[in-house]
Specification:
Rossmann fold; globular; NAD(P)-binding domain-containing protein; NAD(P)-bd_dom
């Protein structure tokens, strides 16, 4: 299966969900690229996941840079002058407190997810303009339950998500809109909406047997889900298949 899929690009792989997915991707013999501000941090995280040095050096190309650098994003998407087949996007901001009664929790970059998708769509457009038709990749993004218009969270979470955590959730909402408005550069989108993320990205702790999966029309409603399970779901349902049945869906994941 791995030899048929092409290279898989990762953004935000030093975060929990995308890191778990990348670890499984490498463990199963796929070639991958990953954008990382600190490559050594990513390498160490993968070693902690049980991925050996030889696998990392032979199957993973790490591009040093940030998601705001379109040239670095382009290198991640176009290794060896060939477009990647799939993209896993797990970029997120770092939470921080601010002096506000209504929104006491914000993130260090309130538009990091939306801006990241803009960088990717710009890079894909540039690649097509400069190199001709290279095909289009499928993209899977880690969003969140509780985005605007989605009835996929328990009542107890509504004030917390739409009030206290409105800044990061607004970014996720705008990110989803940006992806859907750039459908001309993607061969399909899978928007993954996990509920409150818990636990580590350790793939040995994943347990898909208790995972509930829903769609925007019929959401799975719950309180928490582990980063490892979200990463494994993305690997099994998007990366490790020729054609995902979840293309075009907004998928809620929870316990």
């Amino acid at each position: 299966m791995a030899s048929e899929q092409g290279v898989i690009a990762f953004f935000g792989a030093t975060g929990g969900c995308a890191n778990a997915c990348l670890a499984l991707t490498l463990k199963n013999g796929y070639k991958a690229t990953a954008l990382a501000r600190t490559p050594l941090k990513l390498t160490n995280m993968l070693k902690e996941q049980g991925i050996d040095e030889e696998t990392i050096s032979s199957n993973l190309d790490i591009v040093e840079g940030s998601i705001s650098d379109v040239s670095a994003v382009t290198k991640t998407l176009f290794p060896n002058n060939r477009l990647v087949s799939k993209i896993v996007f797990g970029i997120g901001g770092t939470p921080k407190l601010q002096l506000s009664l209504l929104t006491p929790i914000t993130i260090d970059n309130p538009t990091v997810c939306t801006d990241g998708i803009s960088s990717i769509t710009k890079a894909l457009s540039d690649i097509r303009e400069q190199n001709g038709d290279q095909g289009k990749p499928v993209i899977a993004v880690v969003s969140s339950t509780g985005t605007k218009g989605a009835e996929d969270i328990p009542i107890a979470f509504k004030f917390w998500y739409h009030g206290l955590l409105s800044v990061p959730h607004n970014d996720k909402t705008n990110m989803e809109r940006a992806i859907l408005s750039a459908s001309d550069v993607f061969n399909g989108t899978v928007i993954v909406r996990p509920t409150l993320l818990t636990g580590s990205q350790d793939i040995s702790s994943a347990d898909q047997s208790k995972l509930k999966v829903g769609t925007e029309k019929n959401p799975a409603i719950g309180y928490t889900v582990s980063r490892a399970d979200v990463g494994q779901w993305i690997f099994e349902q998007v990366v490790n298949v020729n054609s995902s049945k979840w293309i075009g869906e907004k998928v809620s994941l929870t316990y």
